[in-house]
Design goal:
Elements lengths: L1 H42 L4 H33 L3 E4 H18 L2 E6 L6 E4 L1 H18 L4 E10 L3 E8 L29 H11 L3 E5 L6 E7 L9
Parallel strand pairs: 2-4
Antiparallel strand pairs: 1-3, 4-5, 5-7, 6-7
Helix pairs in contact: 1-2, 1-5, 3-4, 4-5
The chain binds adenosine-5'-triphosphate and magnesium ion (MG).
Length: 237
């Protein structure tokens, strides 16, 4: 039984990694194809102003390649970091500390509701904090005129615990509900979003044997990061 669970978790992990890696390869290949196109046109370009425009385009597209590869590397490195037994409540507090200023600068009020008991998970703390940070920033970005974001933690059935990030913005249209988790899916203007936040979040969650899901609500968006609770420590009843 436990072996089956382990196997399934391992399959989920590999699938999440593989899907993300495939998305990255695809994106970087497309970017490099346009870089080559600009370079080929540039070689024949006599007009110096036009040549400068092509160099600027090459610079811009290669910068996107670097950003994309860096996001992936950050993800890959973090998953290699040793897991430790940490309280999900503390990870939520750490994430809140990182985003509080940015949210209040955009008139977004942040409230934290901690479960009334520790919710231990066996996790790479940095990776989980980054997922929660990204969810909070997405919420803020969805509400350019300000609003409310709440992050709460709770125990869910089946030995799982969750951090739930909810906002009162426009929400995600139902037809985009699955697509938002695809690598490089973004509705943000060019240069403002890589579309990797949720894809990496879902991969990090799967990597921990958990999940990241969008739940439908009457208004706003609600993202649920669910993780397996850590086993009780030996000697603790
Ligand atoms: N809280 C939210 N409310 C409404 N739409 C959202 C919310 N969170 C995510 N989305 C939608 O999901 C898309 C994908 O989000 P994701 O975090 O993966 O990428 P991004 O924010 O566009 O770019 P990046 O995170 O790489 O800077 C967003 O462009 C947006 O359309
Ligand atoms: Mg994002």
């Amino acid at each position: 039984m436990a072996d089956d669970d382990n196997d399934r978790a391992q399959v989920n992990r590999l699938a999440a990694m593989g899907e993300l890696a495939a998305g990255i390869v695809h994106e970087v290949r497309n970017l490099l194809t346009s870089v080559r196109g600009f370079a080929q046109v540039g070689r024949r370009e006599a007009d110096i102003d036009r040549a400068h425009e092509l160099f600027a385009a090459i610079d811009r597209e290669s910068a996107r390649c670097v950003d994309t590869l860096q996001s992936f590397l950050r993800f890959a490195r973090k998953r290699a970091v040793a897991r430790s037994r940490v309280d999900l409540n503390d990870l939520v507090d750490a994430a809140a500390g990182l985003v509080r200023h940015q949210l209040s600068a955009h008139d977004v009020r942040l409230t934290i509701e901690r479960a009334d008991r520790p919710l231990f998970v066996c996790a790479s703390a940095d990776a989980i904090v980054e997922v929660i940070v990204n969810l909070a920033l997405n919420a803020q970005q969805a509400m350019p005129h300000g609003g409310e974001v709440s992050v709460r933690t709770c125990a869910r059935g089946g030995g799982r615990v969750a951090a739930i990030v909810e906002d009162d913005g426009p929400g995600v249209p139902p037809e985009l509900a699955d697509r938002v988790f695809e690598p490089f899916f973004t509705t943000k203007p060019e240069g403002q979003g890589t579309g990797l936040g949720l894809a990496i979040g879902a991969a990090v969650a799967a990597d921990h044997g958990g999940s990241l899901r969008l739940e439908s609500t009457a208004r706003g968006a609600r993202f649920v990061l669910e993780l397996p609770a850590a086993p009780e420590e030996a000697g603790v009843a």
